[in-house]
Amino acid sequence: MPGVYSKAGTTIRFAQGTEGDHEKLSYEGPQGYRGWCTYELEQGALVIHAFDAQPQGQGLGTVLMFETALAAGKHGKGMIHALSVAATARGFYLSVGMHPEATQAAACAGAGLPREHAATYVGERNTLHNTSAAKFRAKGWS
């Protein structure tokens, strides 16, 4: 069951549902606090198709990644893949413990681009769980 988190009088509540053919994990809160992660379950992995956390800079993306890692564990998935990662989101995925997928990173290097230009990022569920938990707690969420 998705969690409830609070910080300085602001509370967000997570819900689990579906959107089309994908699972959806979302949260709502006051003053524009909203976010979601749509994903599907594949062999050995939870695959993120869309991920958004608002407002930015509040640690909500790390809370959402924590809940996503919990969902992966609940479904017995050891890896999390994020597809079509936007250039503006690459730093976030790196900060929570994900890294560019190896084949794409090598292709980037062959083209003279930094490996971070890869569009698919991968991470091990336990690493993402622990890293995101430490980060969102450091931002004051409990």
Supply the helix-strand structural class.
alpha+beta
Oligomer state of the chains in this structure: single chain
| Helix percentage | 25-40%
N- to C-terminal separation?
16 Å
CATH architecture type: 3-Layer(aba) Sandwich
**Percent in strands:** 35-45%
Total strand count, please? 8
Mean pLDDT, rounded to whole units?
92
Describe it for me?
With 142 residues, this protein is α+β, with helices and mostly antiparallel strands. The chain has a single domain, classed as Gcn5-related N-acetyltransferase (GNAT) (Aminopeptidase, 3-Layer(aba) Sandwich), CATH 3.40.630. Helix content is 31%, strand content 35%. An eight-stranded mixed beta sheet has the order 1-2-3-4-5-6-8-7. Helix 1 packs antiparallel against helix 4.
Concise description?
With 142 residues, this protein is of the alpha+beta class. It is built from four helices and eight strands; from the N terminus they run βββββαβαβαβα. The protein has a single domain, classed as 3-Layer(aba) Sandwich (Aminopeptidase), CATH 3.40.630.30.
